[in-house]
Amino acid sequence: VSRSPGRGGLVSEPVCVCAACPQREPMNQGAARRRCGGLHLYLRKAAGAAAHLSALAISVYVGVLSRLGTSRFSWHPACMSVAVCFCMTEAILTFSKDSSPFFCCSVTAKVRLHWIMQVLATIIGSIGLVFIVSSKNISESPHLTSWHSILGIGTVIAVGGQLLCGLCLLFPKLINTYSVARLRLYHATCGLLAYLMAVATAMLGLCSDWFKAQVNTVVWYLCVITLLIPALVIMNQVNSGYLSKKKIEV
Predict the structure, then answer these.
(1) 132 contacts 152 by C-beta, under 8 angstroms
(2) Any residues with CB less than 8 A from the CB of 232 and at least 6 apart, and which?
């Protein structure tokens, strides 16, 4: 403990310089918060990079595995993996504050990029849907006989609703809405639900006999992980960006 001189040479109250003293706890806590904040930011950026790599890896792997062009069915997994795992994922990650490759772009530019990726996902996914329906019709196989196909139809409906909601946000004068901010919140939350439905459909696709016959157990679990990583990152992105109390109270 030391005493610092006050005015007129008088000695003021003792000031502790001991690191273990309770008087220094606020300073130590502030430094700890800064260290934790830096670590948290680093982990978010690492998770975002992992999400981008996972989206690209699973899309390329399933595309190669499907042997595109060898049959009508081969177009279905290839198109759906690109539409869901890559296009939809990158469309949402465009707005990420930590891992967006377009972080230097304006909000307007990001919205346009988001729309471009979502339209591509819709077109490519529609091609995959047409080919699987055609393949089943030719082989005279029944439709909607698995959880993968049933959830897939639900996902198509949900994505269609999100496209309409996105149009309303892109052209707000089309509807008489009292709050564009609240509509944006609904679009983000329902869009997250539609994306998770798409990821769940893709995971059910990994459980199909076609996929299991071509991979071993280790590769199968790696594919599941590569689907989960972007989903978890996007869940955190939407939760921190739109589902906080301040955002809900708009």
Answers:
(1) no
(2) 47
